[in-house]
Amino acid sequence: MLIKDFDILWIIICSGLVFFMQAGFLCLESGLTRTKNSINVAIKNITDFGIATILYFTVGFGIMYGNSYNGFFGTDHFLPVFEINDPKVPVFFLFQLMFCGTAATIVSGAVAERMKFGAYILITALISSLIYPLFGHWVWGRTLFDLNVKTGWLASLGFIDFAGSTAVHSVGGWVGLAAMMIIGNRMGKFGADGKVNHITGNNLPIAMLGTLILWFGWIGFNGGSTLSFSKNIPGILANTMLSASGGMAAALIYGWIRLGYAEATLPLNGALAGLVAITASCHAVSSGEALFIGFVSGILMFETRNLLERFRLDDAVGAIPVHLTGGIWGTLAVGIFANLETIKTDLSRFEQIQVQCLGILSCGLLSFVLSYLLLSIINKFYKLRVSVSAEKQGLNFTEHRATTELHDLFTEMEYQKATGDLSKNVSIEPFTEVGQIAERYNLVLEKIRTNIKEKENLTNQLELNLGVIQSDLSTARKIQSSILSKEDRIIGDLEFTIKYLPLTEVGGDFFDITELKPGLVRVFIADATGHGVQAALITMAIKTIYETLKRGNYSVHELLEYINSEYIHSFENLNQFFTCTIIDIDSNRNKIRYASAGHPPQFLIKESEIQKLEKTGRIIGVKTTSIYDSREIDFPKGSSLFMFTDGLTEQWNVDQVEFGETTVESFFTKKTNLSFRRDIDALLELQSHFLAGMPLQDDITIIGIHRKI
């Protein structure tokens, strides 16, 4: 094959298109990685092409196209000298160089976000100087000045890889897989329980733009591989577009069915998988077959991605599913679908499939095994992976000292976190999204500083009012002491034993014992919400209302109705409530009548049998028109009443178990000779053992009433 002048122009144009694919890879990979690593990925995509150019020129081109040693490698044409007046060899070198650069770039995405920049340069050197040229010689080896003469051993057997599904893409994929396995996964990619944590790229629209650039560049990739401006080019390009579209559609539809939603990276990686797959056979298949090849590649790409996750292998951008799997399938598709008359290998369909499988296996053995061995040895002396701290901080800064607006913002915020100095605003970069974030962060800082100032003023005010508060507390203590007579007493045949234990210096419980007339004693017990000074003030209000009503000619349930109405009318803005029980003990009739407003059931004890005095209405202070009921029960001599607030029963130990009414009931059931003076102390001791060092959580009031025989 002699390259003519018009062919030279076509190859130059295609070389430019393939070179433009470097920009596509840059956009794709930097968009699919996180912001803190995007500059590192971009730098690698620029650097690897320059490194590949130098090494392919000095070593790789000679190994690939020098005079062959038994079909395995070339032995001359190192550092080739290009004649200005003879463009055929330079233009051929130029086109092949673009393919070498593409093979090297594929690795960049697979190992992104955790490989040292120097280590990546070593991998680029390994691919461009040895692995790609060596396998390239096996597949595409030619006599340089007569490209019709095949010299590679795979080519001699009839192996077909028109534009590099295996020679370019699988080579890059195999090396990327080896590097991934050696350096390990990104931090946080896989949880300890095996859960896959998907890491979203920083700019998916840029990644999609990169895909379109690659798609466009593939016109030169496949179209230029004819090495001539021939009539076959339109068909080749049509097949390329059809396969890409088939891969895109299959990945999107199949992934949508599997995942239940249209995942953002499926169309771009599906299209790329279709492009990789058709690269080997675009010159020798029909349009329908090209579409099918692409369709299958999209499904295989999706399943390969799942397989990598199942084996806990972290491919940052999907390079292995796209380039390795797509390349293997595309190479195998040559044997399955290619027109045998077009490829002219003189092999049967089955023989062609066998040769294609041999080429796939040979590529895997050379690319994966050789790169894995060499990189493992290098890793022992020079760690390929960055440190943990460098990975957390991001490779933009740790590898290149390159910062971004977001990094600078985070640095300032980290300083504020470490020092606690919030006196200054962070810097604002105008007219950027990061600047808008910084502006709103500064507004938050202003609010924080205002709150801090207000709290300082409040603290000062509290210190000034501390004396007043102490005085108020003392007043509340004196008032409560005056309204609560905590001494035991005897009224007629009734013995009263009283225990009052406020949680703090003052409490929210109130009780009153009044002899209305000989033989009739009224007992009132109440429990306000909360405790401390505020609750104590509520008990004063209860005391005031109760004192005005208790000697009136009201039954116990009418008394509750009046108390509720007066309380809401006088203190509706307090938003406070209380429970209470009123019991009239009529010794003349041997009866008690009681009414209970939301209070815990009180215990009537007769001959070691306990009867609960259940609630007869809602708590005080909730509803103006609350209706209350009362009950009358026999109360013969020898009977007892045990009255208490919920502070006795609703105490919780460290295991969140409540002391409870059942415990109190069981305690009195076991008593044969009841003595409240002794037994109330024993009950409180039992509660103390139950709490096992846990502090009390509420005020406790206990009134034991025993009717003597």
TrEMBL record:
Residues 491-707 form the PPM-type phosphatase domain. One of its GO terms (biological process) is ammonium homeostasis. One of its GO terms (cellular component) is plasma membrane. Keywords: Ammonia transport, Coiled coil, Membrane, Transmembrane, Transmembrane helix, Transport. It comes from the Bacteria. Belongs to the ammonia transporter channel (TC 1.A.11.2) family. This is Ammonium transporter. It comes from Leptospira ognonensis.
